[in-house]
User: What shape does this take?
Amino acid sequence: MSQLPSRRPFPRSDHVLPGARRHGRSLAAGQFYSSTGVELDEISFDGATLRLRIRPQPEVTYTTHFIGMEGKVLASVEGSSPQYTLTGAPEETYVRARVEASNGAQAWTQPIWPARGD
Assistant: This one.
C-alpha cells in the first residue's frame, strides 16, 4: 500500500532553498508540492482516497482537478477540502492534483502511485 504521512504539511518547492537541509528528506521522498501562491496544509493518501486541505484566502475560491494517466481529468472538486477516492479505472495508475484559485494562483502535487493487487 502506498501511503503518505497524514496531517503533515508538505514543503512547497518554492520554499525549499532557504531550509534545504530540513526539507531534504521530503524532497527525496517526493513529498512536496509546487505553487504560485496556493498553500496546502495537508496532502494525505490512505490507500484509497487522496485528500487535500487548502489554506483559504479571503474572497478566493478553489477548484481542484484530480488527474490520472495521459492527463485525463478524473474529477474536479470545488472548495478548500477536496478529495478523490480511487475507482479502479485504468487511468488511475497515478493520481495527482492541480489546484486553481480564482485569483489565478495554482498548486500542483506530486503523483500518488496507488499499489495495485494482482
Observations:
- The first strand starts at residue 33 and ends at 35.
- The radius of gyration is 14 Å.
- The helical segments are 20-28.
- The chain has a mean pLDDT of 79.
